[in-house]
Amino acid sequence: MYKEKGLLIVLSGPSGVGKGTVRKEIFSQNDAKFEYSISMTTRKPREGEVDGVDYFFKSREEFEQLIEQGKLLEYAEFVGNYYGTPVDYVRDTIENGRDVFLEIEVQGARQVREKFPEALFIFLAPPSLSELRNRIVTRGTETEDVISKRLQTAKEEIEMMDLYDYVVENDEVKLACERIKSIVVAEHCKRERISKRYQIMLEAE
Amino acid sequence: MYKEKGLLIVLSGPSGVGKGTVRKEIFSQNDAKFEYSISMTTRKPREGEVDGVDYFFKSREEFEQLIEQGKLLEYAEFVGNYYGTPVDYVRDTIENGRDVFLEIEVQGARQVREKFPEALFIFLAPPSLSELRNRIVTRGTETEDVISKRLQTAKEEIEMMDLYDYVVENDEVKLACERIKSIVVAEHCKRERISKRYQIMLEAE
């Protein structure tokens, strides 16, 4: 019987935007219909972190071997530590028709885009961008220097978005989560997807 | 200042699918962030129906004059009565940045597609299509004749979908409403839309 593939949902955005907080909130609500793909890292577990829950903790040697074996969908090095996404879990879950949720850095998202162009890319927009909007309404008393630096950052962040299908403003964590869940629901209602499903059902008759 | 246009949301589907029920449920929930565009008709008000609430009730002469004046976004004739959508209300509301919701017949949706290709077209899929899915799992005892007729209808309905951006299965009214609201939320998060908004804000600086 025809089995529809799950979606690969990629949440990313500039560092410090609150991707982790939003991801944790989504999965704490328990009504998310997608599976979280646990990242792999070479950094030491922090207090309270559990192997296989927060991360898969690996040695540098193990991690580099996985890179060589092509076992990582994406990876990056930060402050001397590797972070990455094991590809097998992602592939297996999608093939089984369940949606997978990744929360990764922008460099990683770029790597996923190359390997899974059909994935759903969601950019979490930082408050700096929402502030841009406020600034126009209520002009503050910042110096020219602060303003021009802020605008430069905003420009760079807007350019970053180009890779993504959706932009979710992180003005409020709960709102951001609702928007992300709505995007996933909508994606499942896309005509191409449903029409294909029905076509296949008809052919099976 | 830059004012973003609202969305034109078009809900349609085969007659008898429950478009009216779904629309009423959406607007009874009071959390819908879009405005309902009241249709115009030449049929007589039924008991309890109020002019300007359920429909704008017009005479045949008035309606035909509006057609001639190009005042209708779409219209169709059913069992001797005209039904249509006044175009001014739709344009004004969108221009003011608010979303407008139309619930119309498939012929009407086709007319809107020509005039507003950028509108959001949602097809409400009838139970006959959901049943198609069930049939594959639990084969019934219908005669060949009933089955082949049903499959023919399903084929026609699937072809109808081609015009639409999204398909919402009307398996349960409340679920269908949630999906429609999610689609509207997602549409507002589309990168093109938000990226354009930020670009314009940057230029305004």
This entry's quaternary arrangement is homodimer
Average of pLDDT of chain A: 89
Assigned CATH class of chain A:
Alpha Beta
Total E-strand runs of chain A: 9
User: Per DSSP, what share of the residues of chain A sits in E-state strands of 2 or more residues?
Assistant: 15-25%
Domain module count of chain A: 1
Radius of gyration of chain A: 19 Å
- State the order of secondary-structure elements of chain A, H for helix, E for strand: EHEEEHEEHEHEHHEHH
Report, as a whole number of angstroms, the end-to-end distance of chain A: 11 Å
**pLDDT < 50 runs, ≥5 residues of chain A:** none
The CATH level-2 architecture of chain A is identified as 3-Layer(aba) Sandwich
| Main pleated-sheet profile of chain A | 5 strands, parallel
Report strand order across the widest sheet of chain A. 2-7-1-8-9
Full CATH superfamily name of chain A: P-loop containing nucleotide triphosphate hydrolases
The outline of chain A comes out as globular
- Broad structural category of chain A: alpha/beta
What is the name of the CATH topology of chain A? Rossmann fold
Helix content of chain A: 40-55%
Number of helices of chain A: 8
Largest interface: A-B, 41 and 41 residues
Please tag this protein with its features.
8 helices, Rossmann fold, 205 residues, homodimer, 5-stranded parallel β-sheet, 4-stranded mixed β-sheet, 47% helix, alpha/beta
